[in-house]
Amino acid sequence: MASAVMKKALNPIKDSLILRVLSSRNLRFGSVATAGNPESDDPSLSFTFNEKKNDKSDSIYVKGPNSNSQRETTSVTMPMSFMTGSIVGKRFYQQVSTREADDGNGWTVMLDYRTLKTPSKRPLKLPTLSLAKAIAAEWEYQQTDGIRPFTMPLMKLACTALERVPLTRMKIIDYLMKKFNQDLVFCRAPGDSDLTIGVFERQVEKIDPLLQWVESEFGFKPVVYSSFFGGKQEDGLVNAIQNLLKKTDDCELAAMDAIASAAHSLVIAIGIFHGKLQIEEAIELIRLEEDLQVDKWGLVEGGHDIDIADLKVQISSAAAFLGLSRRY
């Protein structure tokens, strides 16, 4: 199951620019990593992300045992550059594996004998074995010359789902609903402008089927507009979308938030959530107007191509996370 979902999600991002894109973007990640003594076989020792705001060093340092601790451990601390997309330190573990959580509820990732932990130092307990194996694959991919956090989007989403969403769920939903009226798919190019010739027709062709699905799914017809300031959707549609978001679990909401942020469209995120849109279809809708401009004026190397690859990474990783986190 994990391999099938990952293969489907990664098909759109076989672009050779993928590593350039990931390394050039400030993909946020936890900034400090600690580990138990690498020489110890104690399975209770752990690897964890945490944030240390005043640490500006790019070096990795080893913290000695705490004399007040009942169990002697050492720690390996990652620099602040870990959260900016830089290569961090060297790979300090040999084997990556998964195992069932101690309480039998979920799955964890192991770096040698160390349990991977969240920024708040809780075990990274994942809802499915498929997701745990996918995140383990991200860690296994890391090279001996350095850990590349920008190549671990599933790990980032898992930390978001386990740490941020439970504490800020209503704020996330409120923010998504605040932007709902300005959704990308509700905005139409003027049909009588020479500057946007062909855009309106393509929007009708590609976006209208999605809007018709929204109407059939939620019982209210979306309102389209040509104003930069957006329009106002019917209260019934707004309430229906809000109720859908409230019923999501933490992993689903984290994935939908990530997709909506990258797409500038909650409707596209919901389309992927319900299986109405495939990844390639979603990317086509997101880039519809810009792709028409590229066809007309040409592609800017080092600009448009990187933006396209970056969008593919963001949408594909969030869609893969959404699928892998579901208990079928």
Question: How would you briefly describe this protein structure?
Answer:
This protein is of the alpha+beta class and 328 residues long. It has helices at 2-10, 18-24, 129-141, 153-178, 199-218, 235-246, 250-263, 266-273, 279-286, 288-297, 304-324, and strands at 32-35, 46-50, 61-63, 75-77, 96-100, 107-111, 114-117. A hairpin with a 2-residue loop joins strand 6 and strand 7 (114-117).
Descriptive overview:
This protein is α+β, with helices and mostly antiparallel strands. 45% of the residues lie in helices and 9% in strands. The strands form two sheets. The chain has a five-stranded mixed β-sheet, with helices on one face. The chain has a two-stranded antiparallel ribbon with strand order 3-4. The longest helix has 26 residues, at 153-178.
SSE blueprint and pairings:
Blueprint: H1 2-10, H2 18-24, E1 32-35, E2 46-50, E3 61-63, E4 75-77, E5 96-100, E6 107-111, E7 114-117, H3 129-141, H4 153-178, H5 199-218, H6 235-246, H7 250-263, H8 266-273, H9 279-286, H10 288-297, H11 304-324
Parallel strand pairs: 2-7
Antiparallel strand pairs: 1-2, 3-4, 5-6, 6-7
Helix pairs in contact: 1-11, 2-11, 4-6, 4-7, 4-11, 7-8, 7-11, 8-9
